[in-house]
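task queued by scheduler; priority normal; single chain, no ligands, no partner chains; default sampling; output format set to structure tokens
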Amino acid sequence: MTSASPRFPPYPLRGVRVLHQKQNCAPHFAEIAVDFEPAAEGFAFEVAHGLTVEYEPAEDLPRFFAAAAAGIEEQLSLPEHGVVTATRVVLRHARADASGSHELAFRIAGYLVARKALESTGMAATPGGAPRDGG
């Protein structure tokens, strides 16, 4: 019998934090911290109860959080990692900036936080093919 691909995460990862910031003509700003919890299967994302973010207009925040979730899921599903995603991700902290926060910034932050979590467990593919943060 062939060995199955490893499941991610192999154990709970708490407080994985990333700051994505670029200062140029199209600034980016997103800071997030998430917990990765092992799950039975698949990918689930939730925002911690009571999470507050000082940002106006507050109506943008659900879109930012959805973009972070999409970035996390995209990174975890890259075939070069060779893992089976079985995780519940909980957004514990988020920070946004009026001049640089938008969906793309949060999507990249999600991508980077998942990569950081994969690296911390030794499950990340070797650098080369995956997009990297330029800032």
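post-processing summary
- The first strand starts at residue 7 and ends at 8.
- Residues 128-135 have pLDDT under 50 and may be disordered.
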